[in-house]
């Protein structure tokens, strides 16, 4: 990173921060998203009302979670013994998860809001529409995230032992493709989703108030509002801090911001914002449980079944002993 030679910033804490965060996220994220996929794919009868988008959201989270052990290893050992391709692929999965999650959270908000305003659209909406939209999202986001590892692979050789936070930045691209990419990421990955999610939240809340006065479908509208609010909460907690700070972080890297005190604040907050972006892997399953009645019912039903099986096995074992 290039900044003022008289300005030094202690970033040694980030290794402990990253490793601790990823260790805390890995087990809950792996279990929660695995259960979510199992329930949503195998035990949910209704495939409309954003269920397809939830499945894709769980897939995006699980892909990132499965790469965390390699990140944990690197930040604990401080050496990357694997291939450069694997390093860049894990780096790529981080941004793929982030922007795919943002898109699917936005789509869930849009769909719930749309069906709240016009319930007749929900009856005519086909599952294949959600499948087609999801495929399009993966293609667009997958292609859009490719420049991220390319920019951060600057100076990487076959003998490199550095990875992730220690990857170099191609400063020569500051006024070229990198600037275009950063602008597109901020607009498409933050500004537009902020506007849409905020609008959907306010519109759904307004619709619920109107229907409450008329006492029409209040219960269903409350579920819709709860889902949209949860999407907004996950977005603003996990992704807003990163995108707000990331713009200034790049200005520091490109030596546009030269004030030492400002540099220190931006560089110190950057690792925290990245950790918040990873926490979404644990928060998204809360969206499924509290917002999708089918998901909640299936989890409770299968949990109760497992408890009954265990109790019966204990009773059988006790009768045999007696």
TrEMBL record:
Domain G-protein coupled receptors family 1 profile, first and last residues per copy: 32-288
Cell compartment(s), UniProt: Cell membrane
Main subcellular localisation: membrane
Domain of life of the organism encoding this protein: Eukaryota
GO CC annotations, alphabetized: plasma membrane
Keyword rRNA processing in annotation: no
Transmembrane segments: 20-41, 53-76, 82-108, 129-151, 178-202, 223-244
SUPFAM superfamilies documented for this protein: Family A G protein-coupled receptor-like
Signal peptide as annotated in the record: none
Pfam families: 7tm_1
Keywords, alphabetical: Cell membrane, Disulfide bond, G-protein coupled receptor, Glycoprotein, Membrane, Receptor, Transducer, Transmembrane, Transmembrane helix
Topology of this chain in the membrane: Multi-pass membrane protein
GO BP term, pick one: phospholipase C-activating G protein-coupled receptor signaling pathway
GO molecular function: G protein-coupled receptor activity
Function per UniProt: Putative receptor for purines coupled to G-proteins.
Protein name: Putative P2Y purinoceptor 10
Organism: Pelobates cultripes (Western spadefoot toad)
């Amino acid at each position: 990173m290039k900044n003022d030679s008289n300005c030094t910033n202690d970033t040694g804490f980030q290794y402990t921060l990253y490793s601790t965060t990823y260790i805390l996220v890995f087990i809950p994220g792996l279990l929660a998203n695995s259960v979510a996929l199992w329930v949503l794919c195998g035990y949910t009868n209704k495939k409309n009302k954003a269920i397809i988008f939830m499945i894709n959201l769980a897939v995006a989270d699980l892909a990132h979670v499965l790469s965390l052990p390699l990140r944990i290893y690197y930040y604990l050992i401080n050496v990357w013994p694997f291939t450069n391709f694997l390093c860049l692929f894990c780096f790529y999965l981080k941004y793929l998860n982030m922007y795919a999650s943002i898109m699917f959270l936005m789509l869930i908000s849009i769909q719930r809001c749309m069906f709240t305003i016009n319930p007749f659209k929900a009856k005519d909406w086909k599952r294949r529409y959600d499948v087609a939209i999801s495929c399009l999202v993966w293609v667009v986001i997958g292609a859009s995230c490719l420049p991220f590892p390319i920019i951060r692979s600057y100076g990487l050789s076959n003998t490199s032992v550095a990875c992730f936070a220690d990857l170099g930045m191609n400063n020569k691209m500051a006024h070229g493709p990198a600037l275009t990419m950063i602008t597109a990421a901020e607009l498409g990955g933050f500004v537009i989703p902020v506007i849409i999610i905020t609008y959907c939240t306010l519109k759904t809340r307004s619709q619920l108030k109107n229907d409450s006065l008329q006492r029409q479908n209040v219960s269903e509208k409350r579920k819709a509002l709860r889902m949209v609010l949860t999407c907004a909460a996950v977005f603003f907690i996990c992704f807003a801090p990163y995108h707000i700070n990331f713009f200034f972080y790049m200005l520091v890297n490109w030596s546009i911001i030269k004030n030492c005190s400002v540099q220190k604040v931006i560089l110190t907050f950057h690792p925290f914002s990245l950790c918040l972006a990873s926490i979404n892997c644990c928060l998204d399953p809360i969206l499924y449980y509290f917002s999708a009645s089918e998901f909640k019912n299936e989890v409770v039903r299968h949990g109760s079944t497992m408890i009954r099986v265990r109790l019966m096995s204990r009773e059988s074992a006790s009768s045999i002993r007696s």
